[in-house]
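pasting for the record
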Amino acid sequence: MRVIVGGAVAWDDADAIRRELGRLPAGTVIIHGDCHGADDLAGRIGRELGFAVERWVKNKDDVRKHSRPRAWMGLNERMLAGGAELVLVFHAKLYAPDAAHGSKHLIALATAAGVEVRGFTA
């Protein structure tokens, strides 16, 4: 199973990520982006739990396509295109208006692709 984990750069609840990753089957691959917070925690905890971990980074094509401030959009698109059966998103303001733009973008892409999404706010 391939699982994308994303969320807030301010996310520091390692226990929540550990709880959700701990529910995944053996052989799962954890995919995350190149940001602090939820991304970094998912990579560290995923390795601790014995999962293969893929850290994807923004690249020049992402910047060219979406501009530097929004290069995360290209990263989200590429991670999802790389294949995933599940997306886990950790963001305290996930359901707040005018917040969590990157997380909401990932959710919208996954939903449009028919990929299961689970969101966590605390």
